């Protein structure tokens, strides 16, 4: 398997192993919507983006508003097969939809990491530390 033992980054000297998921489905009809979402930008997503774009977060490459199947995810790390979702108040009434979406993404062998919108706005430092710990736990082991 091509992903085995390839180190894609280091977080505090911890090697982070590649978990690239190939052949993800892509609905081209969502391309215009994804572009519009990138341009509009939700405040918490912009704050998060400023922390991770251009390799600022341990030299890990994040994509914003990425199309996967019939969904547009907030952030995607290709080398890790990691989806990062920022959950605002609109998600409070969409639990069933969010669960179906997450189940679909997981069925593609992706991992989904959710962050509440308010935590981005009010506890950013700890949010980023928790994301570091999650990535080390999930991708820092060759047996992942």
TrEMBL record:
GO molecular-function terms, A-Z: endonuclease activity
Record key words, sorted: Endonuclease, Hydrolase, Nuclease
Keyword Nuclease appears in the UniProt entry: yes
Domain of life: Bacteria
Entry annotated with the keyword Membrane: no
Signal sequence interval, chain numbering: none
Protein name, per record: Very-short-patch-repair endonuclease
Naturally occurring in which organism (per UniProt): Flavobacterium micromati
Lineage: Bacteria, Pseudomonadati, Bacteroidota, Flavobacteriia, Flavobacteriales
